[in-house]
Write a structure and sequence with these properties.
By secondary structure, this protein is an alpha+beta fold. Helix content is 49%, strand content 13%. It contains 5 helices and 5 strands; from the N terminus they run αααβααββββ. The strands form 2 sheets. It has a 3-stranded antiparallel beta sheet, with helices on both faces. A two-stranded antiparallel sheet has the order 2-3. Helix 1 packs across helix 3 and helix 2 packs across helix 3. The two termini are 27 Å apart. One of its GO terms (biological process) is DNA-templated transcription initiation. This is Transcriptional regulator. One of its GO terms (molecular function) is DNA-binding transcription factor activity. Pfam families: Sigma70_r4, TFX_C.
Amino acid sequence: MKDTLLTDRQKEVIRYRKQGMTQQQIADRLGTSKANICTIEKSANENIRRAKETLEFLYTLDATELCVLPEGTDLMEAPKIIYVSAAPLNIKIRYDTLALINRISSYMPEKIKGRHVKEDIIVYLNNEGDLYFG
């Protein structure tokens, strides 16, 4: 991967963090300060977040807005809302209940608190049964 949104240093720091190294260990290895590693890691994670949101937007262009999971919805109720909304479209959703809950949580962690939706989540469905969130 040559042309990414991450600098070489950001990729290096993220790789070390994924290997379980602390920021201080990385700083020692790279001959810099822990504060510098913290800044590099924070910038890398922000770039990753922005890239993920951009991809999600692109995916929704080929999808139909299916429903909204309103603020306050219990995540355990979200699959039912989604399945009921998808039924009239005759498109089989590719995820079982548990996978769907995990997908929502992992794609929209900033909109989830505990078991509840803390900010409305728009659910999109494409013809292949993939779901995207906005």
